[in-house]
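Researcher: Please predict.
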Amino acid sequence: MSNIRCGYIGVIGRPNVGKSTLLNALLDKKIAITSKKPQTTRHAILGIKTYKNVQAIYVDTPGYRDVAPGTLHQYLNRTAAHTAFDVDVLVWVVDATRFTPDDDAVLALIKRVKRPTILLLNKIDLIKAKYDLLPLMQKFHQKHDFLEIVPVSAINRDSLQAFEHRLEHYLPAQSFVYSETQVTDRPNEFFYTEMIREKIMRFLGDEVPYSVAITLEHVEDNHDLLKIYAVLWVERDGQKAILIGHRGETLKRIGSEARIGLEHFARKKVFLKLWVKVKNAWSDDEAIIQSLGYGQ
């Protein structure tokens, strides 16, 4: 028992610092959707990595913001904060090229929850003069007493093994919580909706993606064919028109790209049917947010 390490690691940070990219790279499996838009992640997603005598249970969280207007964004902040209180170790992911007021808000949260924290300076592949990293690390040393400060590139997987080696020493000595083959605790249906939403985040402009939620109407999983029927909820008729596009071309493109990703995930052929419906101001209504699966 004393040689076995197992613990929960909360991955926190402001939007767009690479938390989900980091999780996917660590697991060598895509379980968190990614895009260049803030607040792509809306749920706390568990990623489990078991190797040798270590089980690292990562919890990817929505981007934490200094100011979170609207009920949905407040929910995302609460999700990140609750995770920070409930884990054994925190991993704070910072974009090494840019520090913002949202980063200050995350640091204030770290100091409030008083959890041991490792700082990951991500995106070092974008720093041309690597000698600039040392003064940056010294600057962060002055901000907080971190367990470690590790420069990494999640997208290139640079220094991730070094990070894992350091992390495992801070995990509790206890038996594994999950089976050695389990990668996440989420059901497949969760990933079906996330993969569809990822394509919406990537293909549409700045406004509509944040007003879209997805529910499954019906799933039929046969031996050689997976049938998925899903509803895309928006807040206004104008958003519905944008999402459908001229003669339905935008919705067809989203469906086609989502189907490819779903087939890769399910390892079988996928039939995907999408509808677009309006639910007025859903992102500011706590009851509707709950009914759409947030907070569960």
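Model: The chain has a mean pLDDT of 90.
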